[in-house]
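WARN retry 2 of 3 for item q-0093 after timeout on previous attempt; input resubmitted unchanged.
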Amino acid sequence: MATPSDTTRRDFLFSLAGLGAALASPARLPGRTLSAQEMLPARSIPGTEETLPIVGFGSSKPVLEIPTEGKEPVAGVIRVLLEHGGRVVDTSPRTPEVDAEFGEVLTAPEFSGRLFVATKVNTDGEASGIKQMRQNQRLVGSRTLDLLEVESMRDLDVHWPNACRWKDSGEARYIGVTTSSIGQHDAFEAFMRSEPLDFVQVNYSVMEPNAEDRLLPLARDLGLGVLINRPFMNGTYFGRVSGRDLPEWASEFDCTSWAQFSLKYILAHPAVTCALTETTNPDHMAENIGTAFGSLPDEATKRRMRELVQDF
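OK item q-0093 returned
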């Protein structure tokens, strides 16, 4: 059953476009060194010897455009992520002013060399795309980008060849494409089959499970890294579960909240490399990280989870 604290948390998350997880997580005490059991599990980037922790920070538009609180909340979230062994930070092009502030966080000495930053190009035209790619280099303070993605398949015929050239030149370690729309999945699948991607980023959750029909199995067959966006459907998920009791059988896979219900569903898929969660509250990031601990649902349980929420 939802508790008053769950309700308060959902209200807060809605104000940020609703992402985060009210989960049982390792306690955060000042000055306490975390044990190995409290560090995020990691999964391999297929075809490499590199791994990524399975929970990351998705720096969405709502997260980056809350200027009244300054840069410290975002820095605090990243700090907590690193405390638990996390390092994946996902970005999207914003105004130069917003990117400059966010870049000051990413390039701070305490974070230097410790993050895996996914950057994107999301514009029309080659000149504008190259400008964004250069802006990404300034954002992370490095000539070499960890991951360069073409966001939402936008102007793909122009930007993908440039992404490939950047990988060849060493200006991008990995390249990929993103989608956050079920309507793009057919075209996305065709592109996956035709081009040499390293990563895909797709929308996937217990209420939006379409990616598991073809995209996630194909990514696994092709040996691609997979980042997950929209774990709570930009907050819509919380509205649909509001006022409903969490089923008692959720405790069988260590699930204590509706937020955890979706994140556990996501992380249970073997193709998923990292789920991106969004918040400017460090305590909420610690709760998001808690998703990775305890058991995950099996396939029969996942089917039961889908059936439960399909009419919500």
